[in-house]
Amino acid sequence: MKTKSHIIIVSNRLPLILKQTDDGKIEVGKGAGGLVTAMAPVLQNRNGTWIGWPGYVQETDIDDNMLPALQSAASGYSVKPVMLNSEELKNYYEGFSNSIIWPLFHDFTDKCIFLSEYWESYQKVNKKFALIVCQNADDQDFIWVHDYQLILVGAELRKMHKRNRIGFFLHIPFPPIDTFARCPWRFELLSAMLEYNLLGFHTIQDKRNFIGCLKKIIQDVQIDAKAELDETVSEVRLGNRVVRIGVFPISIDYNEFFLKAWDSNVYKRAKEMRSNAPDTKILLGVDRLDYTKGIPEKLKAFQMFLTLFPNFHKKAHFIQLVAPSRREITAYADLKLKIEQLVGEINGIFGTDDWLPVQYMFRTLDRNELISLYRTCEIAFITPLKDGMNLIAKEYCACNIDEKGVLILSEFAGAAQQFYQDAILVNPHDIEGMAKAIHRAFNMPLEERNQRMRNLREIVKNKDVFWWLNSFLKAAIEKDLSSFPQADEYSPFKPV
Ligand code: GDG
Fold it and tell me: Collapsing DSSP states into helix, strand and coil, what is residue 198?
């Protein structure tokens, strides 16, 4: 009898939250993101495994004490930790991943620190992940690698003679050739991506950029004539190797947010928040602390809005929540100071005894509190300078059950490719344009708001995270990739 193939998910972080208590004990809790919610049933159904870093540094590779706790937190599937030591955290994670690929792929080339020790460590850690995958994967298993920290895992697995179907999903944008070409390891990264059977991107633009880079950097690659034109899955051939490339815009668990938005505690909390700011309209920003999210530009736009439209003084309030992230990297610490300075400046110039224009929170809120905020605020102001997708925009719409809210969205967020008709799209570099967009949103007639929000919610509902997951798995598994080379035929690409 043929046994069911398993699914193996590989991501930098495990879907578990680890906390150290005051007495030094480590507590393990479940992760709460949409990816975890979507993956959990698939992993349980396919007796799957999730491989990743548990989020704390340890100098040795094995942590047997931690395993039972980790395993018990992940009900119905296996968890295999990959431990990182302090050198790896510095060079692989903070270095190559977050000081090279993250800024490069978001078009912040001035923030890239191209150090060869980062590249060495990135290769070493990707190999370490691949080894754990190798130890846990049977031949029939489908391996799904996630995101920019682990681009080389597929290629490392091929070197270990693994012939499994392997998929890769990139959660961040893929840059155009002029940007990507600056990377000293451009050939190695791109050719490693061609070791996967399926590559998934958020948008057609990302797919197009990837194909543009292939054409320039990898010789002899044959690409479907229509590949750059549409979102359907295309094929790239290199010798006897076939790589499928598709567009799969990630999403959220719509029902979870929708149902929580109806929760009576959320309703009470939203009412309380509203009563704290009577007779004002509230603008909401929620972002991880990151220079890609355009937080200073947004604050400047709000300042310009207050300058251009003084009749909104005491009538508009901006709540900006910033979730702490990557503060050990200098660029992030500098950004935090810049945000605090701008908030102080705006409140200093415009604030009065009874009106604080900007309420700034630097912390991570509990999920229900976040949903209450989504329900409270009339406008979501989401203006990243560059973003793979942006799930906050989708969460705001899912929670907007009275369909009266307005979404102001950057044209450089992946979500804009789905929401362009019904969100107010803005260029986050155009401060005055954003100020006018806030004005337009505050003045939008109810009927128009209803219509736009209904359309936005329909998109999120129809293409939720389960749709995303199924589309990717279908594209990965439906076709028999018989032309894929056997292990002994494997030969790595040579730089051109
Ligand atoms: C990457 C890509 C892509 C935020 N603050 C709080 C909180 N959050 C949660 C939100 C949302 C998530 O964090 C942020 O997701 P984003 O998509 O906006 O951004 P990234 O973290 O940069 O994610 C991005 C994503 O991957 C998926 O592929 O969309 O483009 O950069 O889910 O709810 N959650 C809670 N409290 C907070 O204070 N509970």
Answer: strand
